[in-house]
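Exam revision sheet. Question 4 asks you to relate a sequence to its structure. Input first:
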Amino acid sequence: MILAGAVQAKNTKNATTRISLDLPMTQSHYKNLRDRWRARQQNLQRKLWSKHKESLDWVSNNYRQLVAGSLGSLMLLTGQTASPSIFLPQAKAQSESAVQKIDKEIFLISDLASVLPKNVRSLNTDEELGVSEILTRVFGFKTTPELDNKRLNRNYGFIGAEQHLARYPGDTLSTHFDSEDDAKFYWQSGMAPGLGAWGYFVSSSNSLSQLDKDREKYYIAVQTFLSKDFNKRFSEYRDFYKYRKMLVVNPNNGRAIVADIADAGPGESTGKHLGGSPEVMYYLERFDGSLKGPVIYFFVDDPNDNIPLGPAIPK
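Answer key, structure tokens:
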């Protein structure tokens, strides 16, 4: 939770304090409004897809024909009398450009809806295969529910909110953020009282790299301890899961992020199946408590470490 004593910025025109929390009540009010607005947006989105699913699915399956037809109509309206072949290259370019502008996240939502079960539960083999094929095709890198003969207890479940993790000894909220904007958004999530599953990310602030920052910024906590034969294969699982990349997708809005495993949890009794850092939750537009929602989380098969952590954009 937010520290009891808010850090006050210097009262100068060009204050250089990294954190500015002069108006905690205003920030709290802003966060409350932001959360309510997002919850309302998600609710409207769910209602839209529930009420008009057949129509939206039809658009998803026929959007190329719609774009081509619209461009053809526009060409006829110009009244040009030249040979149609003159317009073909231009029409093709315009068609491709228009198709690229169509919101790809909408089609991802539709594709996933055709595979995922109505209730949030563990996926069966066919569902896992379908989701894996969709994500691999949409994002351009291989995703899989199982890697090196290892898998989590599930890969579709409810996500809860985690706190910031200390990256090195002495790391606090006052030293944690790179910008004032980040501090305004994420300060209130607080610092976790303990360390991540693998301790500090680095030994000191002097050795903190951008990769180390990203590993904490985009971390998730998963139920590693529920993996098959976890206690018998503890050291094997421990090394495998450390900072392992996963693609986490909100199936209700199409937002996706490449995250890394940096902690274990949450407990089975919580009713949640994984946790996300404040930045992960914010980007996915997921919330804790009564507003919690499901996400898909599949391993990223990236042996050469080419896939960066952070938001994943459909190709």
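Marking note for examiners. DSSP finds nine helices and eight strands in the chain.
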